[in-house]
Specification:
This protein has 4 helices and no strands. It is mainly alpha-helical. The protein has one domain. It is elongated. The model has no long low-confidence stretch (mean pLDDT 93).
Length: 86
Amino acid sequence: MSNATILDRFLDPVASLLTPEVAERLVRFRADADTQGRLDELAEKANEGLLSDDERREYETYISVIDFVTVLQAKARTILERRATN
């Protein structure tokens, strides 16, 4: 089973707890400027093969968090779409 599938299954019960208002806020969520800047810096270094071991771990953590938030945002969108069609 893929990590995405595991994450998806884990977040199904969490998503069922979202109110429409929370779902809307979650869909609009974006990283702050400092966080995005650091992520961009690490991504550039990764593309150039210049990450230190500590930076690689940091970058992998960012990617894991992004995956988590992305799945949760998709579930929030589904909640909002269902609400719009009912």
